[in-house]
Amino acid sequence: MINNYFILKAQVDYLKNLSSSYLIKNVFSTEKNLIVFHLLTDNGIEAYLTLILEKYLECLFIEDDKSIPAKNILYLFDNVLNTSIVDIRIEDKNRIVTLELSDSRSIVFFAFPKYSNLFVSKDGVITDCYSDKAAYLNTQIDALLPKRNTDATSVESTDIASFLKNNYSYIGKQYREDIIQRFESDESVKYESEIAEYINTLLTPKKFMLYNNEETIVPSLTPLLVYDNYTREEHNDINELITHFYRRYKFYSSRKEIKNSLTDSVDAKIKRTKSRISNLQTAITEAGNSDKFKRYGDILFSNIHNIEKGLGVYEHTDEETGEKEKIKLNPLISVSNNATNYYNKYKGMKNSVAELEKKVKVLNKELTVLEKQREVLIAENNFKNLKKMSKTEEKEMETEKLPFRIFKIDEKFEVWVGKDSASNDLLTMKYASQYDLWFHVRGSSGSHTILKFLDKNLTPEKSLILQAAAIAAYYSKARNGKHVPVAYCERKYVKKRKGFNQGAVVMEKEKVIFVDPNVPES
Question: Structural domains in the chain?
Answer without folding.
Answer: 5-144 (2.30.310.10), 160-234 (no CATH), 266-388 (1.10.287), 403-515 (no CATH)
